[in-house]
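#struct-pred
JK: can someone run the complex with protoporphyrin IX containing FE? inputs below
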Amino acid sequence: MSESRGAAAEAGVGRRTLLKGGLLGGAGALTLAGGVASGTSAGQASTTVGGAGSAGSVSGILPTGDAPSPVGHLVEPFHGAHQAGIATVPQSHAVFVALDLDEGVGVTELGRLMRVWTDDIARLASGRAPVTDQEPELAARPAGLTVTVGWGAGLFGRLGTEHLRPRWLAPLPPLPIDDLDGRFGEADLLLQIGAHSPVTLAHARRHLVGAARGIASPRWLQPGFREPMERDGWSLRNQFGQVDGTVQPDVDGVDAGLLWIDAHGQPAWEGGSSLVLRRIRMDLAGWERADRVAREHAVGRDLATGAPLTGGEVATPVDLHAVLPGGLPVVDRDAHARRAGPHAPHQRFLRRPYTYEEVSADGTVETGLLFAAYQADPLRQFLPVQRRLAEADLLNLWTTPVGSAVFALLPGCPEGGWLGQHLLA
Ligand code: HEM
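RT: done, structure tokens with the ligand placed:
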């Protein structure tokens, strides 16, 4: 059964998150809190867990007069068995950038890009500027930056490496609720960038997209936001006002196998994962016409607290068997919580939703959810749930998927290694 991730989030800061030069860095914290430099070509400072004291080693340009920020110096370790940004407590800002390989690009060029991105991401995540960074000052505050790299299904056909494609990596089958406009569909490459600072995020995005020039070009870009570290850090309040993201598998514990690809099948993908990114438009005007009772029954949870209508607190499991005195179920037959809940233990995945707003020049705003689901095998875990919701879900009255894409997220890499190495080398 799913459970809340409240304890895992530990006061909103991810278990693996380090405060650069702070929590682990001892004396370095004083220097760093006043604003520190990025090392433009300094050696790799270790920011892995246990790298006490090393994070404060910086050189280069010292920004002056920059106001200290409470989250500016948070560091998410980059190296490891898994990429950061998946089991990481979601940062308050994110952008999903999809790119397509340029004409004529082959395995060699992709390998070159992966090596460059690996080095750049490792530096940016630890508050150091990439070698070719033209604005190194902007790298000084990593703000919990994570960059997660994914490959889309089309990449393998283009490179002639179909044998490396995970068997589940394909677009989702057509769903009756979908109204996909083609703008936010499949692509060859994904950069998922998250940070607690929009400034850090913008700089990282610009640099990494620029570093791909000549090899891959952007296809779409989807920015999202959420309240920083709200509640347990995992749930956000979406624009319907709901607490969203509460029920999650315990991916740091017993449910790790639901998130990470294991060694069976394709060993080169071991430690990787997958992302299903659904762009879901939310009809706020329609939602505002519904009364509070209807809104709460659409999910089966109290709007104010997020607690189930069957009682308890936000972390209390919904009692799907509870009935009213007349015998009717407390939680509607088509309530989102009933339809989305697992019908088998493996039908679960990690959710890291973000709100999006698409603002037009004429002032019209489209609002929705960047529904980001992570799992070892989307066909087995995600698709049955999505199919059930597409058949019936009260939330469908106010929501419409307008974009959909699936990516394989690369395994992590150790220091000295690079992302995708086992697949390309
Ligand atoms: C705009 C679209 C959506 C909104 C506003 C929304 C909102 C919510 C809310 C408020 C909850 C209850 C609290 C929680 O556990 O997080 C929830 C639960 C859940 N949602 Fe969604 N959701 C949306 C789309 C989806 C989609 C597309 C899927 C999967 C295909 C999904 C899967 C789930 C799951 C698995 C749960 C936990 C169910 C349980 O075991 O209790 N949701 N959602």
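RT: quick notes.
The radius of gyration is 22 Å.
Residues 1-64 have pLDDT under 50 and may be disordered.
JK: thanks, will look after standup
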